[in-house]
Amino acid sequence: GGGGFGDIFNEFFGGGAGGGGRRTKTSGFTGEDGADLRYNLSITLKDVMFGLEKKISFTTMVSCSPCRGSGGKDGAKPVTCKTCGGSGSVRRQQGFFVIESACGTCGGSGGMIAEKCSSCRGEGRFSKEKTIDVKIPAGVFDGQKIRTAGEGEAGKRGGRTGDLYIFVSVSKHEFFEREGDDLICSATIPFVDAILGGEIEIPLLNGSKEKVRIPEGVQYGEIYTVREKGLPILNTKRFGNLKVKFALETPVKLSTEQKSLIVQFKELSGSGSNPKSEGFLSKLKKFF
Question: What DSSP line would sit under 63-132, residue for residue?
Fold first, then answer.
């Protein structure tokens, strides 16, 4: 599920902590803008392949229906505060200094509500669990931030509604690793198949299988690329590649007969059969 419901991130979004967001001038007074919210959503690599439509729920401040967000009874609009003239602040002179402070009559809002809404007590909003549909596009990356406009915290007394930011985290897959838009698959093969070559079937995220040729004499760590069998490239109709990385398995628990055959194979192996190891041993001899 999600996490961090109701979190406010000044460093990212500029919302104010504790509901003290930006102010919006409306009908001669200033309402407070709602904060932007964060929702943490964990998805699978298969969701990255196909995209995801999901319902998410979180608790936030929503606009009060009876007063239509104004805070006044039956939707009555606040009137401009006569003390501060709608500015929300008053000045007084003290000696050579002019001191400015929040208006004590309207509490710094710049407006006065004659009779408050009984449902929200004049706030124009109240706390409620909210459920919305979100769409995660195919090809999305781990840590990507998706903005859903107007789905954040409702503003106070007519202020602007904030936005909801969905932070996506992609869980690890048991078989594939991601490298950009490519899928990396480690395939362990018997050393006999590595010598003689062969074929292996790789199951894909879309439910199909891809036959991959094992080249004769393939070495440990070599990569075979299947084009356009990877992940979808975000906001395009193109796909990344599937990269099969070969790992070789050395046989164990050999019988006496098998070991004898391996000894014969070793005796029959001429120069050039193992160029990498031969080259390494040659360098060692030169070094010493």
Answer: E-TTTTTSSBGGGPPPEE-TTTTTSSEEEEEETTEEEEEE-TTTTTSSEE-SSB-TTTTTSSEEEEEEEE
